[in-house]
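Supplementary notes for students who missed Thursday's class. We covered one full example, reproduced here. Read the sequence, then the structure, then the short commentary at the end.
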Amino acid sequence: MAESLMDALRAYDKTCYPLHMPGHKRRLDPSGGLPISIDVTEVNGMDDLHNASGILAEAETRTAALYGSPCCRYLVGGSTVGILSAIRACCSRNGTVLAARNCHKSVWHAAELMNLTTVFLMPERIGAYDLFGSVRPEEVAAGLRQHPEAEAVVITSPTYEGILSDVRAIAAICHAAGVPLIVDEAHGAHLGLQVGNFSDREFFPQGAVSCGADVVIQSAHKTLPCLTQTSWMHIQGNLVSAKRVDHELDVFETSSPSYPLMVSLDAATGFLTREGGDYMHRWEEYLTAFAEKTRGLRRLWIPGVTDPLPQTAAFARDPGKILISGKGAGMTGEALAAILRDQYQFETEMAVGWNVLAMTSMADDPEEIKRFAEVLSEIDSDSLNKTEPSARECITAADIDIEIEARADAEFSAAATDPGQTDLAAAPPAETVMTIAEAMERPSVPVTEESAAGAVSAEYLWAYPPGVPLIMPGERITDGLLCTLRVLRAAGTAIHHEGRAHDSVQDGMILTVKAEKEDPKKEQNRI
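Structure (token representation):
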């Protein structure tokens, strides 16, 4: 038996002539650089991802050992297929799920497919940085008491920006109620690794597997040395059937999984087993040095570095995510990202509202992270010398005042006196009128944003990334949401509609549920 999937594929390439898929036959590569020599199908000796019993099963077992997990499944459709499969495996059609409002769109797509009633768990807000904080365990407990029919709890930890919830406490609450906890840990595949002598370190927070979550989905490609689209999921405990999850993976994942992608997962596992401890130590060292060099920034703010995050709103933070707010310097995220790109050749992960997100990994060049710290210090110093930011770099106080005056919600009126407190990242909570599926299935009509207040949304609107909806189908459109959309656009943030097919939904319009005509018989009965 070969020691790795790559060894098996290389050996196979030298034996049989391929009278099977793929069509390139490991001979013709028009691109000139794709790994066609290892791109095969489920031939003898290569196992089958959907019924792994040989070399792929061994690879998954090796990966499980990295996290102390009893069961691991490779995913070649990203974390999305894992989330869809986990929710469908845990919930009944027309059932109820408790889900954090800042979950990725794949959670809501699962709810849509199954016509689930979604009960929102509202994370704490970190107003100074316009971000979602942690989901409080006590809110999960209250949600389960109020909705004993709920069949699963779903949270995101860490969030896109690196904020973690107290997964251990939440898991204990869920288990006491007999309900499984599903954790979208797509951005935390590096958390909880048991590699070398690093498993006992405290620099990075604990991962969801060691904290007792029943299903944990991780995007290996986001923070580990893996190809895009590669993920894995862990299943543990007795509340979730691994066989049921496997069936749902058959439903949602391709029946022709890519061997190069699976090689990437297996190779990353081997690398982490051999050298992961050293690389994690190195990552810690250059992130520590980065924090020291940027702690004195005055107008560019980095949560957890330039100032502490409130413990009530943020249980823990992943130091590998560097979130920079330009609010104190009067720069929007788009403006700051443009400066980093055009003047200093740093391409950041995301810019939305006031914020820019820089993602690091163990594969970074320490010298480049050092240079990044120096560049931020330089930009910070330049901003101190500017008496007034340019129009391209900022949203002016007048702009924000005009937008805030448009808000009907009283909770936002105070922000008009302090534009620096304006929340650009999320709209106020909206009323849920019907399930996502019901709203998607009803007749719909596009309306202008000016006339949309009070209508029920028939589509998702996102600032993407990170793919957390500003509004979902079935929610009532509020003045607060419409104002948030205008302010985000003013900050240079693109608002995305669901899908490419909505050609009739132009910018400045929203697809809404078409109001049903009044039944004449009902009208007569009222008289």
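Commentary. The chain has four domains: 1-46, 47-273, 285-393, 400-513. The two ends are 82 Å apart (CA to CA). If anything here is unclear, bring it to office hours.
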